[in-house]
Amino acid sequence: MNSQKRITKMTSNYRRASLMMFLGVLLLISQAAHAASWSAAASTCTPDNGTVDKYAFIGGTFTYSGNSTSDLYVKCHITNPIDDSNSEPIWNTITVGYRDPDGTSKAYTVTAKLVRFNKTTGNTNVVGSFDSNVGILAPGTTGPTTNKATFSHNWDFAAYAYYMQLGLSRTGTQNPEVWFVKLSLN
Question: pLDDT, tens digit, for every residue of 84-95?
Answer without folding.
Answer: 666 788 999 999
